[in-house]
C-alpha cells in the first residue's frame, strides 16, 4: 500500500525503499526456506490440493522476487 501511495505521489525514493524492503524480506527470510518447504509438502501431501498449493506457493514467491528485482533495476534508475 505504501509503495503504491508513494508512486501516486511521484515519490520515487520512497517507492524504491519499499520495494527494497520487500525484496530484502524475500532474500533474507521467506525466499531462503519456502522452496525446500514447498518441495517437502508436495512430496508428502496426500491430496492434490496441498500438492498444488505447494507448487503455487513456490512459484509465486519465485516470481515475486524476480518481479521486485526487475522493478528495482528498471523503474528507479
Quaternary state of the chains: single chain
State the order of secondary-structure elements, H for helix, E for strand.
HHH
Number of helices: 3
Low-confidence spans: pLDDT under 50, at least 5 residues?
none
Q: Count of DSSP E strands?
A: 0
Could you tell me the radius of gyration in angstroms?
Answer: 16 Å
Q: What is the CA–CA distance across the termini?
A: 22 Å
Structural class: mainly alpha
- How would a textbook summarize the main sheet? none
- What do the pLDDT scores average to? 91
Strand percent estimate: under 5%
Q: Helicity range of the residues?
A: over 70%
Shape: elongated
Keywords:
77 residues, elongated, mainly alpha, 88% helix
Could you explain the architecture of this structure?
It is a single chain. With 77 residues, this protein is mostly helical. It is built from three helices and no strands. It has helices at 2-8, 12-44, 48-75. Helix 1 packs antiparallel against helix 2 and helix 2 runs antiparallel to helix 3. The longest helix is centred in the middle third of the chain and has 33 residues, at 12-44.
Present the secondary structure layout.
Layout: H1 2-8, H2 12-44, H3 48-75
Helix pairs in contact: 1-2, 2-3
Amino acid at each position: 500500500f505504501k509503495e503504491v501511495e508513494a508512486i501516486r505521489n511521484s515519490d520515487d525514493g520512497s517507492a524504491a525503499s519499499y520495494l527494497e524492503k520487500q525484496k530484502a524480506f524475500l532474500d533474507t527470510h521467506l525466499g531462503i526456506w519456502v522452496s525446500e518447504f514447498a518441495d517437502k509438502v508436495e512430496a508428502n501431501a496426500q491430496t492434490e490440493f496441498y500438492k498444488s498449493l505447494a507448487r503455487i506457493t513456490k512459484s509465486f514467491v519465485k516470481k515475486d522476487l524476480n518481479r521486485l528485482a526487475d522493478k528495482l533495476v528498471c523503474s528507479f534508475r
